[in-house]
Amino acid sequence: MDARVGDFIEVYPDALSPAQCAALIERFEASSLKAPGAVGGGVYTELKHSSDISIGGRPEWQDAEAALNQAMLGGLLRYIRTYRYALIAPLMLQIADPETGAPKRLEAEDFDRLDDARLAPIVQHIFRPGAINLQRYTAGEGGYPYWHCELYPRDPQAETLHRTLLWTIYLNDGFDAGETEFLYQARKIAPRTGSLLIAPAAFTHTHRGNRPEGGDKYIATSWVLFQRAERLYGGGG
């Protein structure tokens, strides 16, 4: 179990290789899809000043989306093993006993008997990946200084209320500042090329993106969402 009980902020180095990160930055800069970064209510550069590309569902970005989601899944499995009740507490899950095959309720002790090949389908049955944004924060002017969280009511489908975790992969470093800063945890995460940050999406992990100095900051970022009720339970609520 992680030593920082109550923190719930995890960073996993080398989720992507430096070569993969550099390739994503090159493709980002070559793309004509870049647009001003938006917050939940629209574009407000005093709150968030960035250039973004939402790559979800775009055929030309399908390979990048798959690679990023695979990297996220690797970190998510590690995260769930540390915080097992992130998977257990919201739902009373039934699994096949890892030894006998008989149906049983998932308990924390079962994780020690589940390798990643067996844990991954359980995690993917409960959670789904969100749309991925590639973002550039320009040195000396870009940033997301507004304290915010990722869980809020926004649309009739309640997609933003399905968010349970946030994640960010830092695509570069070599600049000053530019940390992801968590308010209540009094913790700053310094960008490191290829590292993956995972943390809860709710107000407990209110955060902001500090302005990079001396170089532009590039990230890939998204959320881990619960599957919708109709998939988990069938037929709706």
Write the layout of secondary structure elements.
Blueprint: E1 10-12, H1 18-30, E2 35-36, E3 51-54, H2 62-82, H3 85-88, E4 94-96, E5 103-105, H4 116-126, E6 127-129, E7 133-137, E8 144-148, E9 163-170, E10 176-177, E11 180-182, E12 187-189, E13 196-200, E14 207-209, E15 212-213, E16 217-226, H5 229-232
Antiparallel strand pairs: 1-13, 2-3, 3-7, 4-5, 6-16, 7-16, 8-14, 9-13, 9-16, 10-15, 11-12, 11-14
EC number: 1.14.11.-
Organism: Coralloluteibacterium thermophilum
Domain Prolyl 4-hydroxylase alpha subunit Fe(2+) 2OG dioxygenase: 133-224
Provide a quick synopsis of the model:
With 237 residues, this protein is of the alpha+beta class.
What does this 3D model show about the protein?
GO terms for molecular function: oxidoreductase activity. It comes from Coralloluteibacterium thermophilum. Pfam families: 2OG-FeII_Oxy_3 (PF13640). Keywords: Oxidoreductase. This protein is an alpha+beta fold and 237 residues long. The protein contains five helices and 16 strands. A hairpin with a 4-residue loop joins strand 11 (180-182) and strand 12. The mean pLDDT is 93.
